[in-house]
Design brief:
This protein has a single domain, classed as Gamma-glutamyl cyclotransferase-like (Hypothetical upf0131 protein ytfp, Roll), CATH 3.10.490. The protein is 26% helix and 27% strand. It has 6 helices and 11 strands. The strands form 4 sheets. The protein has a 5-stranded mixed sheet with strand order 2-5-1-9-6. The protein has a two-stranded antiparallel sheet with strand order 3-4. Strands 7-8 form a two-stranded antiparallel ribbon. Helix 5 packs across helix 6. The termini are far apart. It comes from Mycena venus. One of its GO terms (molecular function) is transferase activity. Its EC number is 4.3.2.7.
Length: 227
């Protein structure tokens, strides 16, 4: 990269951005974060719930911060989060940043961190390489040199952070909650399916256990359970 070249804007999606990507994406690649957990620890007043009855959506939490909840978390040893790194067309970077800032406005802040992946059995830092794009190769590019990616993180000190809840209580909250963007359980099901499809290694115990509990509530109520 020459001194005058502006680094590409790369954003890592670990929640709804996986199944509903941002606009103006020119490259994308699955990968994972190390030293974080993905938990339904964020109230959603504006998308999957209401101010009176907030739903729950995922946020990233630093593993050392989440360890204070280890006695109530059934999966305290998790510290890897799979998602997708998106490179944004430089021409539309300002527009996409504004779009994401609005979309993630309920208690999220932006941080930077490296994204990892596995290539030929070797773990390394990865990132979409916008400079290598060809018209016929739109989707996946990897770059082994270490760079950082932007990510929206719900910090523990933000007012929407709810912390750890018992899994059955959390499942019931998600099952009953509905907001302007639709049912909270739809968000859960879409996320679980999207994470499964990222990689053979993209297993998330907390996410998949929660999915099973909510599907069980659907089954008890006679609602058809999504596959």
């Amino acid at each position: 990269m020459s001194p005058t070249t502006v680094p590409p804007f790369v954003v890592f999606g670990y929640g709804s951005l996986i199944f509903k990507p941002p606009p103006n994406v020119v490259a994308q690649v699955p990968g994972f974060l190390k030293g974080y957990v993905r938990r339904f620890a964020q109230k959603s007043h504006d998308h999957r719930g209401t101010p009176e009855n907030p739903g729950r959506v995922v946020t990233l939490v630093h593993k050392e911060d989440w360890d204070i909840f280890s006695t109530s978390d059934p999966f305290p040893d998790e510290d890897i989060v799979w998602g997708v790194a998106y490179t944004i067309d430089p021409e539309f970077e300002a527009d996409v940043r504004a779009y994401l800032d609005y979309r993630e406005k309920d208690g999220y802040t932006m941080e930077s961190m490296p994204i990892y992946g596995v290539e030929d059995g070797v773990e390394k830092v990865i990132i979409p390489n916008v400079r290598s794009l060809r018209i016929d190769s739109f989707f996946q590019y990897r770059l082994s040199s270490c760079r950082h990616t932007h990510c929206y993180v719900g910090r523990r000190d933000n007012p929407s952070f709810i912390g750890s809840e018992p899994l059955p209580d959390l499942a019931h909250r998600i099952w009953i909650s509905v907001g302007p963007s639709g049912p909270n359980k739809e968000y859960l099901y879409n996320l679980a399916n999207a994470v499964r499809e990222l990689s053979p290694e993209s297993y998330d115990k907390h996410l998949f256990a929660l999915e099973e509990l909510v599907k069980a509530l659907d089954g008890k109520s006679g609602i058809s359970v999504p596959v």
